[in-house]
Amino acid sequence: MDTKPATQLDAPSGRFGRLVRSPLGWMVTGVIGVGLVSAPTAAGPGPVPLLGAAAALAVYRWVMRRVAGRPVPEIARRGAGRELLFGGAIGLGFILLPVLLLTAFGGYSFSWAGHGLAPVLWTAFAVQLSGAVTEELLFRGLALQALEELWGSRVAIAVTALFFGVAHLGAEEATPWSAVAIAVEAGVLLGAAFLWRRSIWFAAGLHFTWNAAEQLLGIPVSGHTPEGLFTVDVHGPALLTGGGFGLEASILPVLLGAALAAPMLRRARRAGGIAPRPRTRARTAG
Questions:
Q1: ∠ at Cα 73 (59, 60), nearest 5°?
Q2: Best CA proximity match to 126, nearest among 46, 12, 38
Q3: What is the DSSP secondary-structure string of 72-118?
Q4: Are 178 and 166 a contacting pair, CB within 8 Å?
Q5: Are 179 and 192 in contact (CB under 8 A)?
Q6: Which residue of 121, 200, 250, 273 pairs with 268 in a disulfide if CB–CB is 3.0 to 4.6 A?
């Protein structure tokens, strides 16, 4: 792990310089930088989304090392593949278990969509992987770590989860309930995943297989229905099936997400990965 202090950028002195180097300052700087390089490429053709994600990683690394003055073990290349696969296995199970239950009880039925196999697989891979990496850099790498430095891990995960839910209110078929569901499933679960492993790759792997599995099965991904291998017919109450918003608005993954997040947070606490509030740290140190 990279434990040497990073060299900060020679930012302007005075109040503005202190603001830029503060947690909120480097968070905003990083969010703007990552957003500027990733947004234009997110839905591009071929490898364009993956190139955008690579650029987002480069911007993130620069901001964290040169502006925030922090090392970046969370995006270390060593062990990245293992963390991606580990998170991906959890994300796949997270989606397939409620899908199997809903299918077994008649809530979902699937039919082959007839699209070309290779183009659909490639698009799902490129778009969903780049989206997962970019969102994890923004929400867990920048926002959660900045807020954690200010107010501790518990407040940071609560605030980022709330914001993650609110950010999805603009999606098609979104409702207040779907925002709550996303806040628990994605905000809390992915936040817990990051606090446990302290790896963007682990959280991104979980996020990627979750979204890619939904797309390939023809299930709307947060209200959007990209081209998949299947189409899905939904039957039954929206609270169980998710309705037009998709599986993420179903009570089943909400309960499963909470059940997965709880042991992750316990393991993070045992490993010392839960930072207390600064006042608590000061009292403990004193």
A1: 10
A2: 46
A3: -GGG-STTHHHHHHHHHHHHHHHHHHHHHHHHHTTSEEEEE----HH
A4: no
A5: no
A6: 273
Looking at residue 183, its pLDDT comes to: 95
Candidates 173, 165, 171, 175; CA nearest to 234 is 173
Residues 6 or more apart in contact with residue 28 via CB below 8 angstroms: none
Identify the band that residue 43 occupies on the pLDDT scale cut at 50, 70 and 90: confident
- What pLDDT was estimated at residue 219? 96
Rg (the chain; Cα; Å): 19
Type of residue numbered 8: Q
Average pLDDT, the chain: 91
Exposure on the CB side of residue 190, measured as CA atoms within 13 A: 36
CB atoms within 10 A of CB 181: 24
Q: Are 192 and 258 in contact (CB under 8 A)?
A: no
Give me the pLDDT at residue 8, please.
61
Which residues, in sequence order, are CB contacts of 246 under 8 Å at separation 6+?
A: 173, 214, 219, 220, 221, 222, 223, 225
Ranges of each domain in the chain: 79-280
The SS3 call for residue 59 is helix
Supply the pLDDT for residue 114: 86
Q: In 10 A of CB 278, how many CB atoms?
A: 12
SS3 of 18, please?
Answer: helix
Write out the DSSP string of 140-190.
IIIIIHHHHHHH-HHHHHHHHHHHHHHHTTTSTT--HHHHHHHIIIIIIHH
As a whole number of angstroms, the distance between CA 176 and CA 168 comes to 10
